[in-house]
Amino acid sequence: WMRQKRIQGSHFAHLKQASAANQFIIDRRVDPCMSEVFPWDRIPHAHTKMWKNQHAPGNMAVLVNAPRTGLRSFDDVIEAIAER
What we know:
By secondary structure, the chain is of the alpha+beta class. It has helices spanning 15-26, 43-51, 74-83; strands at residues 34-38, 59-62. It has a domain at 32-83. It has a two-stranded parallel ribbon with strand order 1-2.
């Protein structure tokens, strides 16, 4: 557990640090510990689940302008939208 790092509410002092953090995410070296992802129209359900403490451990997220999970680049998003 001592090698685990957590980024929460962080800011980066300069562009080099922000760029390095972005590269970690692109390389999938950051695990967001996502328990559930909800589409935009299911926000009320997600909020109720959280309020009643019925959600699984981890983070919950909502897709905003993304058709599905797993898209890593702008081009991936454009392709996914075209497939609809």
